[in-house]
Amino acid sequence: MAARLLPAVKFLIKGGLAGAAVYVAHDQGLLGSGIEGAEALRKAQETLPPTIQEWTDYLGWELPPTPKIDFSLSASWNKGVHRVMSALSVAPTRACEYTVEGWKYVKDLVK
């Protein structure tokens, strides 16, 4: 009986953790508009370093200094979206071209 129950318990725990992660992401504004996401990022950048410092002091650990990253997250995101959409827009044409090339190759093999 316990052997059958263990996979169900694992599934429920994993599902609960995934649901909690989605809830927290939604609650913090990460799944909202770009403005809400930028605000959540700003809050995280303000909150995390002091919290991490507090925990490392408590545990007696010493971490290296965090590198300063200076790039636009929204510009990188937009570039990725444009590339994906561009690839999706030419996908049917490319599929037709590759199909024609494949048929020519097969016909040449059969001759």
Automatic annotation (TrEMBL):
InterPro entries: Mic13. One of its GO terms (biological process) is cristae formation. Coiled coil: none annotated. It comes from the Eukaryota. GO terms for cellular component: MICOS complex; mitochondrial crista junction. It holds the Pfam family QIL1. It is found in: Mitochondrion inner membrane. It is a single-pass membrane protein. Keywords: Membrane, Mitochondrion, Mitochondrion inner membrane, Transmembrane, Transmembrane helix. Its main location: mitochondrion. Belongs to the MICOS complex subunit Mic13 family. Component of the mitochondrial contact site and cristae organizing system (MICOS) complex. PANTHER family: MICOS COMPLEX SUBUNIT MIC13. Component of the MICOS complex, a large protein complex of the mitochondrial inner membrane that plays crucial roles in the maintenance of crista junctions, inner membrane architecture, and formation of contact sites to the outer membrane. This is MICOS complex subunit MIC13. It comes from Chloebia gouldiae (Gouldian finch).
